[in-house]
Amino acid sequence: MTTQLPLTPDYDAWPVEAELERVSFTPRLVTVRWSDGRESRYHSIWLRENAADETTVNPATRERILDLSSLPGWPEIEGAEIDAAGALWVTFAPEDRRLRFHPGWLRAHDYDNAGDPEAPLVPVTLWHGGPGECPDSLDASGLLDTEPAGEAEEAILAPALESVLGKGLVRLRGLPTEPGSLEAIARRIGPVRPTNFGLLFDVKAKPDPDSNAYTSIALPPHTDLPTREYHPGLQMLHCLENSVEGGQAVMLDGFAVAEALRQRDPDAFATLTRVRWCYANTARTTDYVWYSPMIRLDERGELLEVRIADFLRGPLQAPFEEVEPAYEALMTLQRMLCEPDFAIRFTYQPGDLVIFDNRRLLHARDAFEGTSGHRWLQGCYMERDEIRSRYRMVQRARRRRRLTTTV
Length: 407
Ligand SMILES: [Fe+2]
Known about the structure:
Layout: E1 20-26, E2 29-34, E3 39-43, H1 44-49, E4 57-58, E5 63-64, E6 76-82, E7 88-93, E8 97-101, H2 103-108, E9 137-139, H3 151-167, E10 169-173, H4 181-187, E11 201-203, E12 219-222, E13 234-242, E14 249-253, H5 254-264, H6 266-274, E15 277-282, E16 287-292, E17 295-297, E18 303-306, H7 323-337, E19 343-346, E20 353-357, E21 361-365, E22 375-382, H8 384-406
Parallel strand pairs: 9-10
Antiparallel strand pairs: 1-2, 2-3, 4-5, 6-7, 7-8, 10-20, 11-22, 12-21, 13-20, 13-22, 14-19, 14-21, 15-16, 17-18
This protein binds fe (ii) ion.
Fe (ii) ion binds next to loops.
């Protein structure tokens, strides 16, 4: 008698939160009843495709190898039963193949009762700033001494990832101030995205600058690299030195500003989601140009990204009748970006690392007095995918621990 639960088609851990109690079937449908009374239906074609055996999934990679169209016919169910271990056996015709399904995995993928499978990993919380507000701040002083992907690293990273996913921003404190250490810190989350400014870029006043960022002048609220078809999802800024007068950091939740615009001036909001602006960074040796609305929504009308950087906007090339409404909407937005209630302001301390969603947050800085001391930040980019993947790995590790403590 089998008492072990079967493999799942992935590398994840799926604790059994309710047991299979009853099963019935028709040729194209399996219906199960769980110990908490829930009923779930699964299509035969869906079950066949999501089996975990070696004709469906390559055991070495857990990637699918089955081509559904190569089956001798539409999978139909000839038998279904629950075994002593609590797994579901299903017999498929015309293949005459008997396959076994893990109840925890089945329950976790119950599309018949699913809420929103694409819901954010962490609920998105829009925020306003104002005097005295500061970013979520965490002591990360031991981060580089922890074992990669171990529990101690997770204890530092998990709340940081939650803040970035939910609020678009976190400040880690107490990190080393050695130049270049940002790369090792960033790799604890995921691979860095290189750009024409390098893998890491130095934000400090330089002679012969190729960006306003590399001067001591004030920078208006902006997202970085809106000039790219896919502008970086994350930015990290790591403070190595800061002894200048001025140069305070300013952060705004671009989604909160966009939602406020949607409420206050729906026409301006609609215009900014429609008109495609030109974003251009034409330097001496590179020439990046992209056209995009300033506010982009996903298929469901939720905010996907904002692209705002006045110093990287090229000449507007919109339909003639759109030009004045576009500039009116832009100026309405620009006035909102100056409202102090949207902004949080803080001063970087050496060892601070601010991680923020570069397609959601706007960052700015006050001018600083270049001769009053040194201000040196190192920065890098990453994609939102890396934060999501790292956070799913945290969730997987938590599920695995729950599994081993309940066995
Ligand atoms: Fe920037």
